[in-house]
Task: structure prediction
Amino acid sequence: MSDLKILNEKSLSGPVFGSEAYKNHEQLVFCQDEETGLKAIIGIHSTVLGPALGGTRMWNYENEADAIRDVLRLSRGMTFKASISGLNLGGGKAVIIGDSRKDKTDALMHKFGRFVNSLGGRYITAEDVGINTHDMEMVKMETDHVTGIPESMGGSGDPSPVTAYGVFMGMKAAAHHRWGSDNLEGKKVMVQGIGHVGETLVKHLTEAGARVTINDIHEDRLIAVSEKYNTSIFKGHNIFEDDMDIYAPCALGATVNSVTIPMMKCEIIAGAANNQLADERVHGQMVKEAGILYAPDFLINAGGLINVYSEIVHYDRAESLRRTENIYDTTLDIFTMSDKEGITTHEAALKIAMKRVEDRKLELTNA
Ligand code: NAD
Result:
């Protein structure tokens, strides 16, 4: 049985209030529209630091429990991502159940926008897997509580290139910590998922002289990206059989789990995917014991969030990139803290992120 199945069965059966899976989530909103076929769930984990901002993912989930679990895990991760990045934002996320290549229509996105609007700004949306700037344009026609809209409409555009830049910074910091140099020339990097973020990451990596192998479920993407950046394509069934120095998960989460860790040959895990550790405690520890340096996902993939935040606070692209570049130093600090305190890198990042939320809670209580 896979880790995910175990997590589902453990966490989503039984009562909602007080259960581990729903712990500390402020709100979960189920949105349904028969006409457009919309089935969406909006998760608001926390609004302590500000409105809950997080992208919308469209995915053909096997069942509803998978969708609920995903939105719960993703929205919680957003709270910590905003916190560790010093942004005045809470954590939220939305999932739309369906195949984005087949089921997505403008009408469906409009309807989703109306649901977002009904929350009055407690949740602000943006792009995630399966969703693009055109979709956000549709949402924008229904609500102001949306970011990541096209530059032509006064927005900051697709956040993915900035996310990729931040991941690249985090990866370089990991290389520095592990090998004493952040030069990635000649390093073998496996990029799993060459979508919006993955492709730009491939660009940075090939420019830095890394030897990149790519993997995706869509053959057309593999051919296009490998031709553009002259990369190898992984054609087997199990990417972990391949020789690699760095594993960059840029598809979906939970790929670092009890099954995959024992197979891993990499020395570093640094990628864009959210919730890479299937179970943050168990697999954070397993990775540490395997001698693999894990760059915490919510820390190094925060560039896109920093960029969309600029639509709210009006700072420019240059400032967003400067703040994203800081991910390098923060990642190094997290590694040092993890070494000093004998805790996993994920725990170290979580500790810093949670402290800011707890401090703010205290301020609000004492106000
Ligand atoms: P995307 O939809 O553009 O790309 C995802 C890619 O992964 C697609 O090409 C898809 O075919 C591929 N994929 C899906 N399942 C796969 C599998 N099992 N094996 C190999 N490839 C697979 O999404 P994106 O915007 O590039 O986001 C990628 C990841 O980064 C997601 O986990 C997302 O939550 C996370 N993330 C994205 C941003 C952003 O700015 N877009 C910000 C932070 C985190």
In short: The first strand starts at residue 27 and ends at 33.
